[in-house]
Design a protein that fits this description.
The chain has two domains: about 5-15 and about 85-195, Rossmann fold (3-Layer(aba) Sandwich); about 15-80. Helix content is about 50%, strand content about 10%. The protein has eleven helices and five strands; from the N terminus they run βααααααβαβααβαβα. It has a five-stranded parallel β-sheet with strand order 3-2-1-4-5, sandwiched between helices. The longest helix is centred in the N-terminal third of the chain and has 12 residues, at about 15-25.
Length: about 200
């Protein structure tokens, strides 16, 4: 493999769903209320896709999602949803190591509104960046993976893709990428080392 493409939230950060559960606890909701909405309610998924592709503004997304959840205060709602996330330093270090070793590295991320990225780190981490809201496409649609490969100058078949959602891994595999379903740095990094033929720790 010549390329390493990664998701952002839940791969280069701590678990997104843990942050969502923490948000629900703080708001006085059932801990799984938000996760269940995204997984089980077609209208919520449609709303999510619309904000991921930039078709609606973050404020509109927050207002509608707040109504679905029964949360009256929607000011800063998305920030509150992600407040529990922290950087995953071992995964960040692995991407830096891969890039330093000559692997073409890239980001393919579904954003929520304006996104929550420390872009100051992008030059040291990535050769190419694809963020859904800036491109008008989202995972697991095939075009976004093909664009990610193009941004790092490789064919999809030369790339490993890492994501914490199975459907997004399946989307990558559909265009010929090798996908790694992320469940923690302790399992993902050894798998990447085997696929890339590198020491990443």
């Amino acid at each position: 493999m010549k390329g390493l493409l990664v998701d952002f939230g839940g791969v280069l950060t701590s678990n997104v769903f843990d942050s969502f559960r923490g948000f629900c606890d703080t708001e006085g909701l059932d801990p799984d209320a938000l996760v269940s909405l995204f997984r089980e309610n077609p209208d919520t998924l449609k709303l999510l896709r619309a904000v991921e592709t930039g078709d609606i503004a973050e404020a509109d997304f927050a207002a509608q999602l707040g109504g679905m959840l029964g949360v009256a205060d929607t000011e800063g709602l998305v920030d509150r949803m992600f407040a529990g996330m922290q950087a995953d330093e071992p995964m960040l270090a692995a991407v830096r190591s891969a890039k330093a070793a000559g692997i073409r590295t890239g980001l393919i991320s579904n954003s929520l509104g304006e996104g929550r990225y420390d872009r100051s780190q992008f030059p040291e981490l990535f050769h190419g960046v694809v963020i859904s809201g800036e491109e008008g496409m989202h995972k697991p649609n095939p075009d976004i993976y093909e664009l990610g490969a193009e941004r790092v100058g490789l064919a999809p078949g030369d790339c490993v893709f890492v994501d914490d959602l199975r459907e997004n891994c399946e989307g990558a595999e559909a265009v010929g990428m090798t996908a790694v379903l992320h469940r923690g740095a302790d399992t993902t990094i050894p798998r990447l080392e085997a696929l890339l033929g590198l020491e990443l720790r």
